[in-house]
Amino acid sequence: MELKSAHACFGGAQRYYQHDSREIGLPMKFSVYLPPKAVMGEKVPALLYLAGLTCTEETFMTKAGAQRLAAVLNIALVAPDTSPRGANAPGEADSWDFGVGAGFYLDAQQAPWERHWRMESYLTDELIPLLARHLPIDTQRLGIFGHSMGGHGALTLALRHPGLFKSLSAFAPIANPMNCPWGQKAFAGYLGGTLETHQAVWAQHDASALMEAQAKPPYPAGILVDQGLADKFLHEKQLLPEALEAACDKLGQPLTLRRHAGYDHGYYFIQSFIDDHLRWHAQQLLG
Fold first, then answer.
1. Which of 32, 53, 74, 231 could pair with 265 in a Cys bridge, judged by C-beta atoms 3.0 to 4.6 Å apart?
2. What residues of the chain score a pLDDT lower than 50?
3. 231 in active site
4. For residues 191 and 111, is the Cβ–Cβ distance under 8 A?
5. Which of 148, 167, 169, 208 is catalytic?
6. 3 state DSSP class of 141
């Protein structure tokens, strides 16, 4: 694990790392904000943030404005890259919503993607243990959240790996990817088939379908989702929060889905509500 850069920030440290990934088979980058107590060597809880399409490990740390409150709460922030880079897979950079910058936080099953596009295994089996070994982060007190494609990733990973994440939230998530153009393109490419032929496989990576399949509410303390009503992708039927809302209602899973007039899909929206999300997670991670 190589430290690429470090910056003092609100009494803590903003750091950028690179390491050779076993799961991905390529170098991977991630960023970490360590609050003051962590810099002094005390283990602290952490939030894993998953970014959206075209983003990198830098996007959240430079645009969200999360470090100020994270320093006060003494919660670490971790943001991985959004896909493998440098694989030179055919067509990997042909589209902004598939391939590079668009890993969808799953393990691909189709050639040529299955070799390197293993973001789910990378995060759950490699990155989290790496954090526990090398940084003052208590991975037994780990929350997850994300934006757009990363909101999809946060919801699905939390539902697919019970007990790994103690708290969950999302900003404008792709909540029902089986039924939206972004998700159908990604699932067809990474998982194969169509909704008609591979529905059971696709459903394993769809937050609304996964929620419907739960035997009991997986997050009794609740899930927080914020959605801007001026979000063009909401109106283009890419996000479909109503599907997640219906699935949670049916199961009895507490969901706080806040709809905000005037807010779009970008980081000004995230900046406006990031403190609410940090406090939401802190309440559950810090007791």
1. 231
2. none
3. yes
4. no
5. 148
6. strand
